[in-house]
Amino acid sequence: MTVTPPAAWRAGFGRYVGRTLVSTLYAAEAHGRDRVPTTGPVILAANHTGYLDGAVVFGLAPRPAHFLVLASTFELGVGPLLHLTGQIPLEQGHGDRAALTSALAVLQRGGAIGIFPEGGRGRGDLAQAEKGVAWLALQGHAPVVPVACLGTRATGELAASWPTLRSRLVADFGEPISVTRQDGIPGRVRLERAAEEIRSALAQHVAAASDRHGIELPTDLPPDVWD
């Protein structure tokens, strides 16, 4: 399958837009930015609780990234902006080959990809995760940086709600994870092991960051989950 990835300049423009948005409307903080490799392929894997998670991680990351975003979101009013800023539409379900191939092409040119392994908004505790991030890490030979996104949704708030203006939002970037390619085992087993390694590391990072910054994860599933 031949796929043309989004132009690199789009992610750079998008990062400026995202940073302006979250820094103007909120008390936004970025921690551990120096842990993100400045060059070469890298995957930013973040937990997902609220509507603004993408803008927060995208805007506060130390380098531009192309995020995998559910295709249904492109049908909303923000669709043109998502296209303009180089985001990659991801069809709901397991293993959107076109989206993953486009993301892999970004990694192969030495770019950064952003992904929410949980697959949708929830508690953000990484109790479960999809395998796409592991597939990209293995195929793209890319380290995975766990990102804790905190403060975008409180317990009881809707999935599509925005945080209160000037509230504290945090993006905490952790130590990169280098997934080991294990030879001599079936590819499916290798993928499952890599996915669990990433999920576990991200869950631990999110829990530690939540305690460190004093921002609790929501204890409920948002009552209007559609993303």
TrEMBL record:
Q: Name one Pfam family in it.
A: Acyltransferase
InterPro entries named in the record: Plipid/glycerol_acylTrfase (IPR002123)
Instruction: Using the record's annotation, list all stretches that form the Phospholipid/glycerol acyltransferase domain.
Output: 42-152
Record GO biological process: phosphatidic acid biosynthetic process
Which keywords does this chain's UniProt record carry? Acyltransferase, Transferase
User: GO molecular function of the protein, one example?
Assistant: 1-acylglycerol-3-phosphate O-acyltransferase activity
Residues annotated as signal peptide: none
Q: This chain belongs to which protein, by name? A: Glycerol acyltransferase
Supply the source organism for this entry.
Knoellia sinensis KCTC 19936
Question: Source taxonomy lineage?
Answer: Bacteria, Bacillati, Actinomycetota, Actinomycetes, Micrococcales
